[in-house]
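Operator note (shift B, R.M.): manual run for Quinone oxidoreductase requested after the automated queue skipped it. Running by hand, logging everything below so the morning shift can see what happened. Input copied straight from the record, untouched. If output looks odd, do not overwrite the archive copy; leave it for review.
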Amino acid sequence: MASTIAKAIQLETHGGPEVLKLVDLEVPPPGPKEVTIRQHAAGLNFIDIYFRTGLYPHPLPHGLGSEGAGVVEAVGSEVTHVKKGDRVAYGQSPLGAYAQVRNVPAVNVVKLPKGISFDEAAAMMLKGLTVQYLFRQTYRLQGNETILFHAAAGGVGLIACQWARALGVKLIGTVSSPEKAALAKEHGAWATIDYSRENVAEKLLELTGGKKVPVVYDGVGKDTWEASLDCIEPRGLMVSFGNASGPVTGVNVGILNQKGCLYLTRPSLGLHINTLDKLQAASSELFDLVVKKKIKLNIGQRYPLAQVGDAHTALAARKTTGATILTLD
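Run finished. Output pasted below as returned.
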């Protein structure tokens, strides 16, 4: 197979959305453990902004995005679980998902079941697998718990609302507006707290009858750190899995004792699906809920590749609801 020329986004310096450049890239044949995917859609996530700004360092120049879906065009000599023509998706990969064609390590790629579209796959792989590891691995929910989940109307949050409902878990979601509160409830949140108008810790105590919750899932970071700790019952778990408002810094670990001998973890998806078997098991659980319509993907925004800067601006300003994807056809 010869090299392919494809449109892709690259950046040569870190900065604002203006550093995102649409270029023609040469895609070589896949290596022995790679697959070449002609992509139909790619997902946007807050982590992409971290890489664009340099908060997460990466050697320049580089692409962006780690989540996409499309059709296999070629497989490396050692790849056996997918073949040319298969519909596939991935939620973790080296940077470069903002591209029409790309090579991806085969260990990151799973077959897409019938009934799940490329757009849905691009909207759910990273976000859905994030909810899978949070709810089924980091703190394994059994049902009947009451939990707090920040940014419940975002891409991860709306999947979390539905997954919690499917598990019989009461999810209390924080949101920034009445519209987002309605959206979270529509997707299965048991209750919402509007942090722009309400004190999160006080409202949570009211909702739980003063009991607090065994676990808080916090992908917001700096802005919600202290409020999160005030919502956790003694010896409960603080799961800090993102920093949409900036990283949590300068933490005095003694505060964990003062707030009730709390546990703290800072997990990430990569180490939870670091083998093909683990990835396929987590993906199967996610796909099953989607195929059974227990989780429906809310794609709030679609942008063509050339408008990726606008997509980043909207995401950073929290002007989006549900998932944001790039259409690559």
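Quick read of the result: The longest helix spans residues 118-138. Residues 143-265 form a domain with the Rossmann fold fold (CATH 3.40.50.720).
Leaving this for review. - R.M.
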